[in-house]
Design goal:
This protein folds into 2 domains: 37 residues, no CATH class; 41 residues, no CATH class. The chain is globular, with a radius of gyration of 17 Å. It is mostly helical. It is 54% helix and 0% strand. The protein starts with 16 loop residues before the first helix and ends in a 13-residue tail after the last helix.
Length: 96
């Protein structure tokens, strides 16, 4: 049997597949209760659900704002292409 080394959750690995294998989130539990086969397939990397990533991005945008000014600015820089208009006038898209 393969033994995994326990990881420490961080900003870098929080949304990783490795973290999903070791820690169960409320969302993951709900997905297992809805359909075990689908959630296990997602964990194994055999299947990816068609889902809109925008609500997660909006939530993380708000979270970073309350975390610190530095975290918020870093989040905006990291996700610039997904959050800001490329057309003039440049600015945040309406969802943000």
């Amino acid at each position: 049997m393969m033994k995994m080394e326990t990881i420490t959750l961080s900003d870098e690995n929080y949304y990783s597949n490795e973290a999903d294998w070791q820690f169960m989130s409320v969302s993951q539990l709900k997905n297992f209760l809805e359909c075990e086969a689908a959630e296990l397939s997602k964990l194994k990397g055999d299947w990816e659900a068609d889902s809109d990533k925008k609500p997660l991005l909006v939530g993380n945008y708000v979270h970073s704002y309350f975390e610190s000014p530095e975290a918020h600015e870093a989040f905006k820089v990291e996700n610039k292409e997904k959050m800001f208009s490329t057309k003039k006038p440049h600015g945040l898209l309406k969802d943000f």
